[in-house]
Amino acid sequence: MTTTTDAIIVGGGSSGTAIQCALARAGIGRTVLLERGVLAGGPTGRSPAILRQQYGHAELVRMAQFGIDYFHSWQEHSSGNCDYRRIPLLAVAGEENLAAFDTTLEIMRECGARVEPIAPADLGRWIPGARHDDVLRAAIEPDAGYCDPHATALSFAAQARTHGAQLMQGVEVLDLLRSDGRVCGVRTATGDILAPIVILAAGPWTPMLAARAGVTLPIRTVRHSVAQLLRPAATPAMEVMLADYINGIYFRPEGADQCLAGSLRGADTADVADPDRFDEGISEDVFVELAQRMVHRVPDWTELGDGGGWSSLFDVTPDAYPLIGPVEQLPGLYVAAGLSGHGFKLCPAIAHMITAHITGQASRFDLALFSPERFAAGKPIVGRASYHYRTPLLA
C-alpha cells in the first residue's frame, strides 16, 4: 500500500519528535514520523538529559540557550510534561584544561550566558566534602538543569498529533525512494510512503539509511556508559550537577539518593559499536573507574553504593559537531544526526533550524555551519576551546 504526506521524519528520539512538533506548529500538519521501535527507545531514552551551555563554539552556546529557554517555558508550546528541573552546574578545571576552561567561560559570557566564578576553596558550599586542592578554576552555571528524556519525546509527539501529525511506531524504514534526482519517500515493510521531504533523525542508524540512497555521512557510532551511583546515607543530598574537567567526569542527581555519572574523556567513548548489536550494560571496570573518579572529588562518598548502569550510543562526526540541514546531492533529504552526545539539549534549536529552512523563514542560527557536506568541502567546524586529558586515569 502506498500513502502520501508532506514530510517524513525517520527517528522517534528527541530530535525527530522535536522536528515533527516544530513542523506541525509551523503549519505543516501532514507529516509522518516513523520509529523502528518505540519513542525514545534508542539513545534518547538512555540520556542523562542534562541542559548546559558550556561549549567551545558560540553557535552551540546560543543553541543550548535556546533549548534551556524552550524547556523552561515548556507549557507555553508543548503538551504533557518534560519533567524539567532547574539545578546549577558546577564546573571545575585544573592545570591541564585551564586555558580551554577560561575560553569556554569567555564564550559563554560573550553570548550572554550566566556563569559565575567561585573560589576553589568554596566548593564545599555546593558539594559538601568536595576536594579542591587540585582545582585552579571553578564556576557555577545557574541556568543549567535536566529533564526526563522519555517524557520529553512523548510530549513532543503528543503536541504534534494535536496539529494532525501522524506517528507510526514499530515501523522500520528499509530504503529511501528517489525520482528525478531527488528523494520522494521511503519504503517500509508495510508499504511505501511518498513525500517531497524526508528528514533523517535516526541517530546511529542515520548513516546506514543515507548510504542506501548513495549519500555518505561521516558518522561513527561509539558506546558511552553511565553509572548509577547510590549516595552514602550519611552524606547530604545533592543540589548541584558537576562537570569535572580534571578527572573527566560529569554527574547529576537522580532521585533522592542516587546520581548518574559518565566520562568526559573522549578516550572512554572510542569503541566503535554496531547500533543493532552492542553491549547495553556497564562493565565492572568502567563502573569502578567512574566511582573512583567520583570519590576523588568527594572523598566522603567512599561508601557509595552500586545502583548499576547502562551503555548507550553516540553518533559522532570527525569534528564532534552535528550534521544539520539539507543534503545538497539529494534534494528533499534533510539530516539531523552526528550529535555527538549533545542532541537532547540542542533538539529545540535543531527543530527550529530545519523547520525554518523548509518553510522559508529566517533562522536564529547559522544552518550552513552544520552542513552535511562541510567535510567534503574541507570546512570542518573548529571551536575555540577543546578539552584533552593527557594524564593517566585514576588508579
UniProtKB/TrEMBL annotation:
Domain FAD dependent oxidoreductase, chain residue ranges per copy: 6-355
Keyword line: Oxidoreductase
Keyword tRNA-binding: no
Name of the featured protein: FAD-binding oxidoreductase
Keyword Oxidoreductase among UniProt keywords: yes
Matching Pfam families: DAO
Species whose genome carries this gene: Massilia antarctica
InterPro entries: FAD-dep_OxRdtase, FAD/NAD-bd_sf
Domain of life: Bacteria
